[in-house]
Amino acid sequence: MAKTRVHDLAKEYGMSSKEMLGHLREMKIPAKSASSTLEDAYVSIVRKKLKPILEARAQEIEAQKRAEEEAKAKEEAEAKAKAEAERLEAEKRREAERAEEERKRAAAEAARKKAEEERAAEEKRAAEEAERNRVRDNAPKSVPSFTSLLEQIAQQDKIMKERAEEEKRAKERAKEEAREARSGDRRSRSQRGEGEGDDSRHGRRGGADRSGARGAAEAPSERDAAGRGHGHGHKGSRRSGEGEDRYSRMAREAEEYNRERVLADAREAVKEATEESAGRRRKRKERRKKQQAEAAQEARIEKAIANDQDLSQLDTIKVPQGSTVAELADLLKVPANDIIKRLFLLGTPLTMTQSMSDDLIELVADDLHRDVKIMTKEEENSFSFYDDPKDLKPRPPVVTVMGHVDHGKTSLLDAIRHTGVAEGEAGGITQAIGASQVKINGRVITFIDTPGHETFTAMRARGAKVTDIVILIVAADDGVMPQTIESINHAKAANVPIIVAVNKIDKPGADPTRVRQELTEYGIIPEEWGGENIFCDISAKKHLGIDNLLESVLLEADVLELKANPDTFASGFVLEAKLDRGRGSVATVLVNRGTLHVGDAVVAGTSYGHVRAMLNPKGQNVKEARPSDPVEILGLASVPMAGDEFRVFTDDRDARELAESRALKARIEEQNKVKHVTLENLFATMEDQEVKELNLIIKADVQGSIEALVDSLNKMDQSEVRINVIHSAVGAITETDVILADASNAIIIGFGVRPEAKARAAAERDGVEIRTYSVIYKAIEDIDAARIGMLKPTEQEVQTATIEVRNTFKVPKVGMAAGCMVQEGEVSRDDLCRLVRDGIVVYEGKIASLRRYKDDVKSVKAGFECGIGLENFQDIHIGDVIESYKIEQVARTE
Ligand SMILES: Nc1nc2c(ncn2[C@@H]2O[C@H](COP(=O)(O)OP(=O)(O)OP(=O)(O)O)[C@@H](O)[C@H]2O)c(=O)[nH]1
């Protein structure tokens, strides 16, 4: 039976290992440390002795929990009340502010009206004043209003009338005088001489008089002219007076007209300013916003051009998969309520913090007329570049070999690596890095050396599109097998053309035509049969048809017109990465754009560094790598993951910032994941008590081992024990791993790696188990064993003794006791029992006391007499049979 460790027992009792060790010392049970194992017998002693402690602690915990709950409820109620009060207060404040604003607005309006009235009154007053002045001076420069004009005309009229009146009187006086003159001759002659002189004077005057008379006859028009002529008519001659009137009238009219127009314009402007100032402010704001957006867009375009990004995607908003309502609102720059409303209308009401499905994100964005692209985690970390078509140059094709197990993938890659290599050299060829290159007819082909659709699909799932052409290898003696079909599906899903290599044609049972026939069922039809797929018959073992296959690859590549821009900074994908004891982080990368140089600042996933050295597939040091070249790079500070995209940065700071922000994001996600798993566990445990969890942390030397292990784990039966890989990474086991394991009750599996000294100490301290392996199957075997060990044990009743009741007697303080004979087996004081009377069970429970004579004993064997008392049961009869038994837990083997 499995031994129990001190820390497990401590954990079971909710105490620290130290505390448990203290109890063990008290009980004189030998145990040195938290990881010491205890015999079952000791464990049962501990359980017995600690029972009251445990019960007390349980009560304590219960009480504490209750108190905490009460406190929490109280706190919540208080917080609620406080929030409500604050809300009311805020409401009140807002109300008061609104009222104050309203009051201010009304006051401002009143003030404005008053000012306007005052201004109007002032204007009126000023006009009247001006009019009065003009009338007083009788030489006004302008006539401000029609009323004053009428008044003026009336006044002029009056003046003219008075003047006409006076002239009339003067004429009559003159006539009188003439009459008087005609009456005396002498006086009349002498008076004529004077009269002539006078006449010459009067002649002018007479002229004036005549015109004055005519003026009187033409009074209305002259009056009019005089009136409008600002009363200048009385000065100088009548003609010049008339001229002055017309010009001044014209000037006045022009002045008046201009004044009116200026006033009207001003009034219009004031009106517009008061009525539409808000609108204009809005317009101005909008204009400013538009300008800002344009400037931002320009900056983005400039940055995109500097980084060779694809400009066509600039307007698309990138939304991480699983974004919450609040996050989406933030990205789309709309109020979250807008989204919540739309979701409600779509019949899927969500809260701010709930995450949205891809469909929902797209629906909502569409509704808001926004263009979004949902980014998977991998895509988020990827870059999109733009290349001018004129910069593109042909590049070698990148090929992956796929096929069913044992159909010859490895043999084919081997055969290909030996192509074009001189006989003597052949044996010396080693696979230096995770990819190889061959030259045929002066052209290069790149092969990815980790064959199989698993790698292909894993890379593709991470967004790494590295393969241009797939070679599907099918053994001619075996035909289409399950993994052949899987490979076809994966290649088709990735939209990569397939060339079929029919292998093992050297074998006697080989039937290449049958392979062609079978493949037609899956849409793979030979060119010679009118289809699109090239078929090549080969023997990987005998190196037959390999050149032809490679030439076909080049032919297919020509059709694909594979091109890339080599004259820019490099980017591509990580094919494989590992931690090398001597060289540190080593990553095999495939350049798919630009040229990678030694010394370049590179970011790959969350790793960052300068390329210290580069090795080509032959293991030679190189200074640069061009599109479709695979190289091993040294110099990254940490180990990236297979499938990570890498790129070179011209600015070192940019590179470091990106790597750091990605690492931070990854750490946050990791933490959330752990929390998530724990919550899920809790939920699952609550919902279904049958489910148990086995949490694992996997650390390995290469990513491939992690994937293989996880793959095998996924294939295990997890219906009763769920296996959670809560964290996996390439690298040594660190203290952080131990802390994580402790927090999540996990076991650490190291594959090809060892724990650091600090990690070992932490594991010892916290009782975390670290298991290290060098072969995968051993790790899988152990995990499987742990899984079975964790299965809920089956309970089994094991009968310990059959006892006959021969007598009954009363014992003080105990009650009714039975004088018995043990007939079979051995009864223990701890056993459970049932009392059987005439074949019927009348009692089932515990033994309360077991005695021989007057002594309490632990057990009594068959053939001996004993006294037995039953817990809470007195009705014992002579002839009853007591069956004692134990419940044993039996570990399942499956
Ligand atoms: N006769 C003959 N045998 C071959 C040929 N190609 C491969 N084999 C043999 O087939 C077996 C499997 O070949 P591998 O190259 O290991 O096949 P694989 O597809 O890589 O196998 P896995 O890595 O297990 O998926 C080996 O024993 C090879 O020697 C061939 O052209 N002719």
UniProtKB/TrEMBL annotation:
Residues 62-298 are annotated as: Disordered. Residues 394-563 form the Tr-type G domain. Belongs to the TRAFAC class translation factor GTPase superfamily. Classic translation factor GTPase family. IF-2 subfamily. InterPro entries: EF-G-like_DII, IF2_II, IF2_N, P-loop_NTPase, Small_GTP-bd, T_Tr_GTP-bd_dom, TF_IF2_bacterial-like, TIF_IF2. Residues 229-238, 280-290 have a biased composition (Basic residues). Residues 397-545 are annotated as: G-domain. CDD domains: IF2_eIF5B, IF2_mtIF2_II, mtIF2_IVc. This is Translation initiation factor IF-2. GTP binds at residues 403-410, 449-453, 503-506. The gene is infB. The keyword NADP does not apply. Keywords: Cytoplasm, GTP-binding, Initiation factor, Nucleotide-binding, Protein biosynthesis. It comes from the Bacteria. Residues 62-139, 158-212, 239-279 have a biased composition (Basic and acidic residues). It comes from Olsenella absiana. It is found in: Cytoplasm. Residues 144-155 have a biased composition (Polar residues).
